């Protein structure tokens, strides 16, 4: 019997398991998924936890709820992939052979990569919201915080959900206003980028939005270390910014397993063909989601759109056919802007976020690069879509390739 092995049971891995389990002849193929953790988190929901909009229960479910009946599941840490021998070693020493391998091991936060970040103020006056532990701890802090200098800092690229820090400061602005203490809080958005976002048009629109909300954007700030004693962040060129409350995006990196396997770049992301999603090193290895080094957002929408391409290509590879499906880097992100409104961006490798309507020209119902209530509802609806459609590998009425329909060239 031939063997398909999937490493990682997060968004991308679970989605591919469901798609392929329903497609492949199970008398011919044995499909196994491996993950060391049994809990699945709806990570876009972490953003809402600090403000009490969601709680831990609302973003947490058992992983086995989303596996197809009969799928072979192994809960274990992974030691390394030995591509030359078509096998994976688990930490227990057990060997798993494969004919085809999908790497979906995601990306992890590495706060230890930043000097001083995990000092005496960690989870006291310094927090992240990219882990459930950080989001819950920050919620407890905000409930009783009396104000001061709130700094949101982005020290490194890439990181999961690139718009989340913008969403955080917008939700914070609304949260403090609703509590009647906005005048007691100075909010700064500190980034190594030259503006609020990586793409010029979106950066201008989002930067203007932050300015309207009296949120100070501090660009080109390359974080060197955190000074716990004086409550400052310090850049490599010795800029200093005071904080009373620091919220940070910890450095993101791929798993060390990828480094041990010799398949990654210097950030431990799998070297992947950005169009076919095939490993640069081995023809029978593919990668998807945050585990890859493809030059687009590390976001759930990318896992979904690229999953359609990977599905076609791995079936072609199994049949010995050329890989004809090509991923265009399509990403689609709703952006919470506070006060019951949101924005939306839709882009790919070649086309930056543009204004317009989505998905239908002139009709929408969503507006691109514009704050509307409908975009906010789209963001909230996505949680239901995630649990009930996306993870289960079901089709969505949206093409994997980005469409220019409804977009306006600027």
Tell me what the CATH architecture of the largest domain is. Answer: 3-Layer(bba) Sandwich
Strand content range: 25-35%
- Please give the alpha-carbon distance between the first and last residues: 54 Å
Sequence of strands across the biggest β-sheet: 5-2-1-9-20
Question: What level of helicity do the residues show?
Answer: 10-25%
What is the makeup of the main sheet? 5 strands, parallel
Radius of gyration: 21 Å
CATH homology superfamily of the largest domain:
FAD/NAD(P)-binding domain
**CATH topology annotation of the largest domain:** FAD/NAD(P)-binding domain
- Name the average pLDDT: 97
* Helix count from the secondary structure assignment: 7
Number of E-state strands? 24
By secondary-structure content and strand pairing, the structural class works out as alpha/beta
The CATH class of the largest domain turns out to be Alpha Beta
Q: How many domains, in number, for the residues?
A: 3
Backbone shape: globular
Indicate the low-confidence ranges by residue numbers. Answer: none
Q: Notable features of this structure?
A:
FAD/NAD(P)-binding domain; 7 helices; five-stranded parallel sheet; 410 residues; alpha/beta; 24 strands
């Amino acid at each position: 019997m031939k063997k398909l092995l999937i490493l990682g049971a997060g968004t991308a891995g679970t989605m591919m398991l469901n798609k392929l389990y329903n497609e492949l002849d199970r008398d011919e193929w044995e499909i196994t998924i491996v993950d060391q953790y049994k809990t699945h988190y709806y990570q876009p929901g972490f953003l809402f936890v600090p403000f009490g909009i969601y709680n831990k229960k609302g973003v947490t479910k058992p992983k086995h709820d989303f596996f197809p009946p009969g799928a072979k599941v192994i809960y274990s840490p992974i030691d390394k992939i030995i591509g030359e021998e078509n096998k994976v070693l688990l930490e227990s020493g057990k060997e798993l052979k494969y004919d085809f391998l999908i790497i979906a091991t995601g990306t992890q936060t590495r706060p230890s990569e930043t000097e001083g970040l995990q000092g005496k103020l960690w989870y006291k006056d310094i927090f992240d919201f990219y882990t459930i532990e950080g989001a819950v701890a920050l919620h407890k802090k905000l409930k009783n915080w009396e104000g001061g200098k709130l700094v949101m800092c982005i020290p490194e690229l890439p990181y999961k959900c690139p718009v989340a820090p913008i969403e955080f400061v917008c939700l914070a602005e609304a949260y403090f206003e609703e509590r009647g203490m906005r005048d007691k809080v100075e909010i700064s958005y500190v980034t190594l980028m030259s503006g609020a976002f990586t793409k010029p048009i979106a950066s201008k629109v989002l930067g203007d939005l932050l300015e309207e909300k009296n949120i100070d954007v501090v660009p080109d700030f390359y974080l060197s270390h955190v000074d716990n004693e004086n409550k400052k962040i310090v850049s490599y060129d010795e800029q200093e910014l005071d904080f009373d409350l620091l919220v940070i995006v910890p450095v993101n990196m791929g798993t060390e397993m990828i480094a041990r396997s010799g398949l990654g770049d210097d950030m431990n992301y799998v070297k992947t063909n950005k169009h076919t999603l095939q490993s640069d090193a081995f023809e029978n290895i593919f990668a998807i989601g945050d585990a890859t080094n493809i030059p687009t957002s590390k976001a759930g929408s990318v896992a979904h759109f690229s999953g359609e391409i990977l599905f076609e290509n791995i079936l072609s590879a199994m049949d010995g056919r050329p890989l004809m499906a090509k991923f265009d880097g399509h990403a689609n992100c709703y952006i919470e802007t506070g006060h019951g409104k949101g924005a939306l961006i839709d882009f790919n490798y070649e086309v930056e976020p543009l204004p317009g309507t989505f998905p239908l020209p002139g009709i929408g119902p969503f507006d691109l690069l514009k704050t509307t209530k409908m975009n906010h509802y789209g963001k909230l609806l996505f949680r239901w879509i995630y649990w009930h459609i996306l993870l289960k590998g079901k089709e969505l009425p949206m093409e994997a390739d980005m469409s220019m329909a409804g977009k306006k060239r600027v």
